[in-house]
Amino acid sequence: MKAIVVGAGVIGSSVAYRLAQAGAEVTVVEERRIGGGTSSVTYAWVNACEKLTSHAYYKLNFAGRQAHEDILSEFPGADWYHRPGVLQWQNAEAEAGARDGTDPLVKLKQLIDWGYPAQLLSLEEVRELEPEIDPDVIGNAPVIHYPRDGWLDPVPYAGALVAAAQERHGAHYVNAKVSGLIVNGGRCDGVEIEGGDPIHADVVVNCSGRWSNDVANRREHQVPLAPTVGLVAYTPPAGVTLRSALRTPLLNMRPDGGGRFLLRSNELDRLVAADAASLPSHPQAQELLARAKTTIPALRAIEVEAVRIAIRPIPRDTLSAVGPVPGLDNYYVAVTHSGVTLGAFLGEAIADELVRGRTRSELAEFRPARFFN
Fold this sequence. Notes:
Layout: E1 2-6, H1 10-21, E2 25-30, E3 45-46, H2 55-71, E4 81-82, E5 86-89, H3 104-113, E6 119-121, H4 123-129, E7 143-146, E8 150-152, H5 154-169, E9 172-175, E10 178-184, E11 187-193, E12 199-200, E13 203-206, H6 212-215, E14 228-234, E15 245-247, E16 252-255, E17 261-264, H7 266-269, H8 283-295, E18 306-312, E19 321-324, E20 331-335, H9 339-354
Parallel strand pairs: 1-2, 1-13, 2-9, 5-15, 13-20
Antiparallel strand pairs: 3-8, 4-8, 5-7, 6-7, 10-11, 11-12, 14-17, 14-18, 15-16, 16-17, 19-20
């Protein structure tokens, strides 16, 4: 089987690696750089604890979390997955396709009933774990600790998987823009390359995220999206000892290597224009910094070092869309907001479906077909 994977972010790199490992002849086509799309502008929390809208959605994300643990055995020495734990207190906003209930104790009970590693911490326990958090920002709010949660470094992950697909399994990498699908008689035969020769294949897997409908350039083959704007701010090295990731009413923040911290907020994202300049002086970046200093007073002397802005690829109903697109044979799409959490699992699942002929029941409720009825 010849397969084209469009996009080399967390999902595309995972799919390419697993397809090639399963015996497909894989060509990865990426317009920018590996991991250079939305994968490089993300909080990158690998979790299922906010995916409580349905048990199926929770299980899908839990499988993604487990797949990230499992894949490490294939990459000895990999250091892209950090799991020091996550602290969350209400009312921290949930991500797309998720729910963060107003009663944290109800949420905690549901997580424990569903087998998720989570526990309630007292303020004293939080201070023992992370003494640099100002206790006043927590007050008397219940704090949930996810001791085995953490985050992914998406770009090193994607780079390692694309390299492994090439070096171990003979995959090809093409740095080019896909300008459309090659469609003949209701069948996808490959992709058109802007300024280059078309590439033909037995199946095309569209993992290009927010650009997925630019690849599927006919409306009848497009998954409807409701994308949102996201801004991420980075501090310079700060010499602060915070190890855990934080999900708080003020902001989400976590270590980002070399003593830096990554800052973001769903609330502030609503105030960010998609075409805004990614400058440290951006008003929302400065507000993130102010909130970070309130949360961690030891950061009071630092400034914003860098800002990135991206468009998040979210299907119209906020849930993942993974599978064949009705009316176009040999065309498969994987677009979801939870790409970091789900990427490693989707690689496995898509290889099972396309190469091994095994339908994955975990994806049953998340097929693109729901948009085409």
